[in-house]
Amino acid sequence: MSDGGHARSIEVVGDLAGVPDHLKGGAIAIGNFDGVHRGHQAVLERTRTIAKEIGGPAGVMLFSPHPRQFFRPADPHFTLTPLPERLRLLEALGLDLAVVLPFDERMAGLDAESFVTGILVEKLAVRHVVIGYDFHFGRGRTGSPDVMRALGARFGFGVTVSDPVGEAGEVFSSSRVRALIAAGDVRGAAEVLGHWWRVVGRVVGGAHRGTGMGFPTANLRMEPGYVLKHGIYAARVVVDGVRHGAAAYLGTRPTFDNGAPVLEVFLFDFDGDLYGREIAVEMIAHLRDDRAFPDVEALMRQMEKDCDAARSILAAVAAEDPMQRFPLGRALAATAG
């Protein structure tokens, strides 16, 4: 696993018609890996170890969109890490290959054996497959770890089924991370992830109220189905590969209009126009819940206190980042990217 230095570039394959020979014959981990949490990282580390042993590339196979979005399009599914963010994390882990397959009617209709023969064997010539203990695949989810083992024995590739990974009696999972984020416990979510969770988006226009109060903000629209608890957060904003301390607000602005929720970030000691640019907001700590204030002056006084609290927390993190206890956290700390 990459541990603080720059990881090699990951090669992304979306078309299986012409996979380069140097990307075939390796070890492939299969799953959605939303969040790339510490359980996922154990699967991926095992994949890298096996790839090294067999002398082939270490890869991961992802599906886009998430199968749940395909089967239940009317039910918004909050994605912790959109595909570009997931690829950034996978690259930091030192993987060689990411196979990104469209999850469409054709994919949903493949039975388990056709998925293995048509994709894993014929297109990727895999020598080893790594899956989680709860992984299912193929039409109707009929493919199980036992089915994958049997198909591996039949078609000549090894299969490793990773056991659950967790601590304090709780298994690391993407659903656990979502529950923590929904409760505002972004630090707890980071402990499960092994890295700071962040929101990535393009800055959109706002009402400019913050500018009038001396707190100019960059505004981001949240993805449909988002679960982050409304309130004020200590955050770090990544702009052009550089981290800036910030206070972030997610809410409906009840002091003003109770409008549509928006994520607003006030960057400390920053002077620049961010409109239309893509930024990443690392959520470090929840400071307080959203609430209405009797007037703008009272809100401004509270915002001063919020910024002071955020600066204090961020200074402590800068001095001793708790995510650097984890390999992926250390790798990401080396570059804000």
Main traits of this protein?
337 residues, alpha/beta, six-stranded antiparallel beta sheet
Task: Let me know the number of strands.
Answer: 14
Q: Spatial order of the strands in the main sheet?
A: 1-4-3-2-5-6
Mean pLDDT: 90
List the uncertain runs.
1-7, 210-214
| Gyration radius, rounded | 22 Å
Q: By helix and strand content, what is the structural category? A: alpha/beta
Q: What would you call the shape?
A: elongated
Listing every helix as H and every strand as E from the N terminus to the C terminus, the arrangement reads EEHEHHEHHEHEEEHHEHEEEEEHH
How many H/I helical runs? 11
Itemize the secondary structure elements and their pairings.
Blueprint: E1 11-13, E2 27-30, H1 38-54, E3 58-64, H2 67-71, H3 83-92, E4 97-102, H4 105-109, H5 112-121, E5 128-132, H6 145-155, E6 158-162, E7 166-167, E8 170-171, H7 174-182, H8 186-193, E9 198-202, H9 209-212, E10 218-220, E11 231-239, E12 242-251, E13 262-267, E14 278-289, H10 296-319, H11 327-333
Parallel strand pairs: 1-4, 2-3, 2-5, 3-4, 5-6
Antiparallel strand pairs: 7-8, 9-14, 10-13, 11-12, 11-14, 12-13
Helix pairs in contact: 5-6, 7-8
